[in-house]
Amino acid sequence: MTPSACHVMAKPSGSVCNIDCKYCFYLEKEKLYPDAARTWRMSDEVLELYVKQYIEAQDVPAANFAWQGGEPTLLGVDFFRRAVELQQKYAGDKTITNAFQTNGILLDDEWGAFLAENDFLVGLSIDGPREFHDRYRVDKGQKPTFDRVMAGLDMLKKHEVEFNTLTVLQNHNAEHPVEIYRFLKEIGSGFMQFIPIVERVADDPGPDGLELVDPTHEGGAKVARWSVGPTQYGRFLCGVFDEWVRHDVGETFVQIFDVSLGSFLGQDASLCIFAEKCGKALIIEHNGDLYSCDHFVYPEYNLGNVADQSIRDMVAGDAQTKFGDDKADTLPTYCRECEFKFACNGGCPKQRFERTPDGEGGLNYLCKGYKIYFAHIAPYMQFMANELRQQRPAASVMEWTRRRDEARAPAKLPGRNDMCPCGSGRKYKRCCGTKASSPAAAAS
User: Fold this and answer.
1) Which of 167, 252, 211, 179 is nearest to 32 (CA)?
2) Burial status of residue 10 (CB atoms within 10 A of its CB: 0-12, 13-18, 19 or more)
3) Residues 6+ apart with CB under 8 A from 104
């Protein structure tokens, strides 16, 4: 049965990028296309097939295009002018939207004017303040990129381009949730995505030359040193949540919090990693090859090429249907019996390479982190869900939390080196204690 809608993210420049993030799982995908040489560019013919077929695959009023890489700005503005022309040609009565993920380094006035004029939503990749961002996001000469990314952000602001931020969580910046969150707020991010990076490096790469393996890899493999840890990830989410739920509900939006609230309302997860089944979020490579998922760009997950088959037919085909169903069908008993199954559904299949306490395979590497997170947010989410059911604003949770904190507050302030009572996981002097010792606090 053909799904009513699907999402196909385009990588028109393949894996080619102008920086060299040390944790990037996509840079090595160029090994899958050894004949591409320097022609890492989606041709006009493939672009037109993609635009036409993608719009035709949507049995809904809108077609939402997403452009990523590699780095899509390497193709130049004219490539995307052509994409917009083709969207207009084939749109019919459908509404067309565009999202554009970039490291921001090549953004200039020409880009700013184009993105603003065509209402592109830009996702800016930034991993926090300078010391956290530059830890892994370096250029080809291994030089830091933070200042150039911030210059790109200034260009977006200058042209009033709508943007959000994507922050990759790795073993370094995940230790600093409140600092990361406050920084993103300070630079004007009203919508944040926090993406945990988890990869395994093969002891012996296979014939395709890929070192980062999928969860079905049968040979030896170790979790990459830059991967975020399960408990570390859970504590990061809790730290950000505690700041957000006390100050920013309704003003700042964090993707995983929005998705979690939907789950507590009984809705199907709007984010693929938490959906019961997956298979409706695919990617198209620069040459027109369609893959099951951005995280499964391996030969065995290549569904075909748009020059030979339509996107609609490939999405509805047996291979992709099985790929989507497998997420639910292979879920371990340990997960099926978990109290948070309704909100988690086993997480992303790419990360399901651990074993349960009973020895069953298919447990998500981040399971411990998810349990920490969902257990921590449950009372707040239940309160917000009830408020929304009563047609009251979810933001009232901030006042509820304030009263809850007061009722549970210790008789005296914690010491500078005590753990902060807000639950951030940081010492008081480096968290809420910074507010208490500020000049404004002292004067109040």
Assistant:
1) 211
2) buried
3) 124, 125, 126, 148, 149, 151, 152, 153, 155, 156
Q: How far apart are CA 151 and CA 139, in angstroms?
A: 15
Angstrom distance (rounded) from CA 287 to CA 33: 9
Structure tokens at 279: 């298979």
For 25, half-sphere exposure in the C-beta direction (CA atoms, 13 angstrom radius) is 23
Q: Give the span between the Cα atoms of 258 and 381, in whole angstroms.
A: 10
> Can you tell me the distance from the alpha carbon of 424 to that of 431, in angstroms, rounded to the nearest whole number?
8
- Check: pTM over 0.70? Answer yes or no: yes
Task: At 44, list the tokens.
Answer: 């006009």
Which of 20, 134, 154, 294 is the catalytic position? 294
The answer to whether 19 and 139 have CB atoms below 8 angstroms apart is yes
What are the phi and psi torsion angles at 139 (to 5°)? Answer: -85, -175
The pLDDT tens digits for 150-207 are 999 999 999 999 999 999 999 999 999 999 999 999 999 999 999 999 999 888 877 7
Residue 68's closest CA among 327, 320, 293? 293
Known catalytic residue at 294: yes
Radius of gyration of the chain (CA): 22
Residue at token pair 């008081």: 428
